[in-house]
Specification:
Elements lengths: L2 E5 H10 L4 H8 L3 H9 L2 E5 H11 L3 H5 L24
Antiparallel strand pairs: 1-2
Helix pairs in contact: 2-3
Length: 91
């Protein structure tokens, strides 16, 4: 499986800007909070493509932004929009 180098400072900046706590993001991605802390506190870390993809889906960000292939955009540093659904199915 392909390994990708994730820029940890970008991951942490996006997570904080999106207002997603470590426990919630870790649960969405299927890793422990301790693993996420290790990822965020490393200078850069190698993750398999599946794990990196799950992080990007949860944060709604392009994977190339986290690898440094694309620059971070202003919109990457804004909170996610809450779903407009009132039935509770999208929460």
């Amino acid at each position: 499986m392909l390994e990708l180098e994730i820029k940890s400072e970008r991951l942490k900046a996006v997570r904080k800007a999106r207002k997603i706590g470590r426990p919630k993001l870790a649960k969405q991605v299927g890793i422990t909070e301790r693993q996420l802390t290790k990822i965020e506190t490393s200078e850069a870390i190698m993750l398999n493509e599946h794990a990196a993809s799950k992080l990007c889906q949860a944060l709604q960000i392009n994977i190339k932004t986290l690898t440094g292939e694309l620059p971070m955009l202003e919109e990457d540093l804004h909170p996610l929009q809450k779903p407009q659904c009132k039935s509770g199915c999208c929460s």
